[in-house]
Write a structure and sequence with these properties.
Helix content is 34%, strand content 23%. With 404 residues, it is α/β, with parallel strands linked by helices. Strand 19 and strand 20 form a beta hairpin. The structure holds cytidine-5'-triphosphate (CTP).
């Protein structure tokens, strides 16, 4: 079972089957997932939070605020962090709240904020299970796209025999791992991504650089890995690392180094996405000692042109390879982006404008327009960089389908 790098929220509600969820958490962690347990207040009557925090390696979340520190547990951040949510056991009461948007605890609030797939493993007595309100609520959850892991038949905690036993932890873990296996549209594809700025050395302590933080490129790398691609990230100097352990990183400093690495690996790749903010110029010579302040003279730095990495890859692109570029513009955005698409022989260009609040360097959000070779374009609203990465890769997958 492979759940490597997956972020899974395990929601536990107040039913006797909660004791089995300890095994589920253990299986998910063993499969490589990072697990965050969220318990409803009633769940804590059935199983001790310490058991679950020990097994998951993370403090259990139950309240909107952590009691001793007053720290706010953000349901929005949790919802975005999750690749999947599994609620096991799900009582009739929680299912009813989820179906009807009754957000009176941390678990249901997180459920309502989340974009990830949701798996619900009901557990209750047979008569509760058979009640029309339960049936209606479960059908509502299905209509929202949630996956119901049907309870099994057997002896229940009440000693009655019927349908209502929570599915065994081994089977719930299997459902999740099978889900992630088939949710890998980029499986078998090799993607190279450039990210971050480049630093062009002036002397041992100074450089020419820019404000790029690498967030957009890293978000694409993580999302591509999540979709099953083999990802190589060629990164300029940034302060972040990919979330996914599956992403292979090659660190470079200058445009020249980035160029060399890109050309070393491009022939092997199916797709290259160029998000790096490459410096267009570099000092003609690098001083080997720190340049000292002169009394009367102001030093002049002579610049030479850096290679255009994207354009050079565009020139050596073979049929079937896809090349995607970025254009961060301040004016004449569409015309500039389309010009770069043609000039660099790209298949698609992602345009973002510094005129849009929330777009560009350093932010956690971006607002993009995608242009393709046939000059069709698609504009998206302001979204988190994670969501923007998903939109870009959706379009890339469509292009892959047309070239395969
Ligand atoms: N790019 C590159 N190598 C360079 C410059 C740019 O690979 N030396 C890539 C960027 O990663 C991006 C695309 O080309 O995908 C456009 O980058 P941008 O800096 O906007 O393009 P320039 O050609 O440098 O145009 P401008 O005059 O706007 O700076």
């Amino acid at each position: 079972m492979s759940l490597t790098g997956k972020h899974i929220i395990v929601g536990i509600t107040g039913g006797i089957a909660a004791y089995k969820t300890a095994t589920l958490v253990r299986l998910l962690v063993k499969g490589g997932a990072e697990v965050q347990v969220i318990m409803t207040p009633n769940a804590k009557e059935f199983i001790c939070p310490v058991t679950l925090s020990t097994l998951s390696g993370k403090p259990v979340i139950s309240e909107f605020f952590t009691a001793n520190t007053g720290q706010w547990n953000s349901h929005v951040d949790l919802g975005l962090w999750a690749d999947a949510i599994v609620i096991a056991p799900a009582t009739a009461s929680t299912i009813g709240k989820m179906a009807n948007g009754v957000a009176d605890n941390m678990l249901v609030t997180t459920y309502l904020s989340a974009k990830a797939p949701v798996f619900v493993a009901p557990a209750m007595d047979l008569d509760m299970m058979a009640h029309p309100s339960t049936t209606r609520n479960i059908n509502l959850l299905r209509s929202y796209g949630n996956h119901i892991i049907e309870p099994a038949e057997g002896e229940l905690a009440s000693h009655l025999v019927g349908k209502g036993r929570m599915e065994e932890p081994e089977n719930i873990a299997k459902v999740l791992s099978e889900y992630f296996e088939q949710d890998k549209p980029l499986k078998g594809k090799k993607i190279m991504i450039t990210a971050g700025p480049t630093y062009e050395r002036i002397d041992p302590v100074r450089f020419i650089g820019n404000y790029s933080t690498g967030k957009m490129g890293y978000a694409i790398a993580d999302e591509a890995a999540r979709r099953g691609a083999e990802v190589l990230l060629i990164s300029g100097p940034v302060a972040i690392r990919p979330e996914s352990k599956e992403v292979k990183v090659i660190d470079v400093e200058s445009a020249r180094e980035m160029y060399e690495e890109c050309h070393k690996h491009f022939a092997d790749c199916d797709i290259a996405i160029m998000t790096a903010a490459v410096a267009d110029y570099a000092p003609a010579t690098v001083a080997d000692k720190k340049i000292k302040r002169e009394k009367d003279e102001i030093p002049q730095i002579e610049l030479v042109k850096n290679p255009d990495i994207a354009a050079s890859l565009g020139a050596s692109k073979r049929p079937g390879q896809l090349l995607v570029g970025f254009a961060l513009e301040t004016n004449d955005e569409s015309a500039n982006a389309l010009d770069k698409l043609q000039r660099k022989n790209l298949d698609m260009i992602v345009m973002n404008s510094l005129r849009d609040a929330g777009a560009g360097f350093g932010t956690d959000t971006n607002k993009i327009t995608l242009f393709k070779r046939d000059t069709t374009s698609r504009s998206f609203p302001l979204k988190s960089k994670k969501e923007v990465a998903a939109d870009i890769l959706d379009e890339v997958a469509l292009l892959v389908d047309t070239t395969d």
